[in-house]
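We modelled the chain as a single entity of 265 amino acids. Its sequence is:
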Amino acid sequence: MPTTIVNGVDLYYECHGKGQPLMLIAGLASDSQSWQPIVEELSQHYLVILPDNRGTGRTKPQDVETSIQQIADDCIALLGHLQLPSATLLGHSMGGFAALDCAIRYPAHVSKLILVGTSAVNSDRNNNLFRDWVSYLKSGMDTERWFRNVFYWIFSRRFFENSETLNDALRFAIEYPYPQSDTAFAKQVNAIEEFDCREQLPGIKAKTLIISGQEDLLFPPKDSARVLQAIPSTSVCLIADAAHSIHMESPTTFTDCVLHFLSDG
């Protein structure tokens, strides 16, 4: 799979399918492989572009300086490398922050915007929680216990009712061959805490879809909708029986929401 040098990093990315470009921007501690449950379906309709954000996966070096703006710059630079004038940007959680920043600073390059389990600013509770996750990593917490702690926040109650699914997810996370370093994770956490684009939302021109999981603890749907509906052209898709990792828990419903939005003018 290809890489390209952008803004001082060797950016790893994948492209699947063909058609109008759709770039998926992953969240905290996630990379291109986090989209596996939905890539096959989306790539039957669109050219799906999956970058490993700086600080994750196969993008090098991992411990590079990181801000939301730099992640956004990398995404726009990747479009330039691919000779694509614009794309729909779909961002999950921290990736939603980056997608918003692209829409604010690079409006000509963003045809539509899909914001998943995110907002325009992180809450004080989340900032404290994420800093705790950094501390647990640095303390040498057992890897399985650390991921379990994260899973309690990002998956729904229904997810934990299936022990096989839970164990498979833990095994994938623990055995993943391109793990994020503790330093890179901490830099992403700092980037999230520093970002706040609420004042710029009314100036966003892109037609926008907000997707929320009904059980999302990190970005509760009512809070996200209240903030993000300051964007002039928005619609909302609320997915029941899903929490923060919506595309992993409810991939079919998720892709249905995305495809309906993208086919609607």
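As a brief sanity check on the tokenised model: The chain has one domain: 3-263. The mean pLDDT is 97.
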